[in-house]
Amino acid sequence: MDGTTPTGALSHSAKLAGKGFGVDIQPTTSTETLAIGRPWLMSMLGIEANQSVTLDLTAFDENLHWTEASKYQPERKLRSGIPLGQNATTKLYEPYAAVTNEVQTATITGAPTGGTFTLTYSGQTTAAIAYNATAATVQAALIALSNLAPGDVVVTGNAGGPYTLTFGGTLLGDNVASLTATASLTGGTTPNVTMATTTAGGTATATDGTQKIAGFLFTEVAFFPTSTKCAAPLMVHGQIDVAKLPVAFDPTDVPAGSNTQFVYKV
Predict the structure, then answer these.
(1) What stretch of H or E contains 189?
(2) Which of 260, 225, 238 lies closest to 38 in space, CA to CA?
(3) Residue 201 CB contacts under 8 Å (≥ 6 apart), including other chains
(4) pLDDT band of 230, cuts 50, 70, 90
(5) Which of 42, 128, 147, 219 has its CB 3.0 to 4.6 Å from that of 239, i.e. a possible disulfide?
(6) What single-letter DSSP state applies at residue 122?
(7) Burial degree of 109 (CB within 10 A; 0-12, 13-18, 19+)
(8) Buried/exposed code over 28-52 (b: 16+ C-beta within 10 A; e: otherwise)
(9) What span, in angstroms and rounded, lies between the C-alpha atoms of 247 and 118?
(10) Digit-coded pLDDT (tens) for 5-47
(11) Buried residues in 59-85 as b, exposed as e (16+ CB within 10 A)
(12) Helices assigned H by DSSP within 131-181
């Protein structure tokens, strides 16, 4: 310091202070982030490589991919972070057609009037399940196994079955080994529990090019209900938090020929 009087804001504050005004000037910082509205985006790294593409809006589903227009908001809105693939025929971009999830069924036969059954997954067996258990009870019994986590399997169906077991979570897109059932049922005619695989996991759901991941929708995109196409920014390089994407996505199931310029947090 050379003892000279500061200029600018400080000299102005000194003048105000001299007139009896109490002035306290503090440094302020202003920041702006492109991650707002994109909880799945881990870093700004790579966003400069974003590409402008055209979406086939007819391929996107309500609720899963976009929210409906309203009286005061006439435009529908696509969620940011949707994984996209390019249709090789139309050259338009559609939702990435991920590999199928395993679906199995458990059917109680012989019209039992009592008793229980158990299900075994990968060497672990559930506690006894009542012959007329609800789907929620069957699901809870499976999730109680140490090798299944919440979200790994969802059970639907009527009380007493048939039960549909749809695998996801850490088993998303996996070819899951068939569960086995052991029945201790009473009444009816030779009651039993049969297991069947209705959809094998891990197989491609499309052959038109959308089965290969091209990138992620970088921003929310608004469009009118009558629109069938619109331009959108495609993120083709970057870091993705998989758990925060708007739709289920398993990077370990991405097939050969897909865009590999991503780092995933799983």
Answers:
(1) none
(2) 238
(3) 99, 100, 101, 102, 103, 167, 171, 173, 174, 175, 176
(4) very high
(5) 42
(6) T
(7) middle
(8) eeeeeeeeeebebbbeeebbeebee
(9) 32
(10) 444 444 444 443 444 444 444 443 333 455 667 999 998 888 8
(11) bbeeeebbeeeeeeeeebebbbbbbbb
(12) 135-143
Dump pLDDT digits (tens) for 71-121.
788 899 999 999 999 999 999 999 999 888 899 999 999 999 999 999 999
Residue 82, token pair as written in the block: 């949707």
| The amino acid at 17 | A
Q: pLDDT (tens digit, 9 = 90+) per residue, 47-77?
A: 899 999 999 999 999 888 998 877 788 899 9
Domain covering 47-98+210-265 in this structure, CATH number:
2.40.300.10
pLDDT value, residue 15: 42
**8 A C-beta contact, residue 113 and residue 103:** no
Region for residue 110 given its phi and psi (left: phi exceeds 0; alpha: psi -120 to 50; beta: otherwise)? left
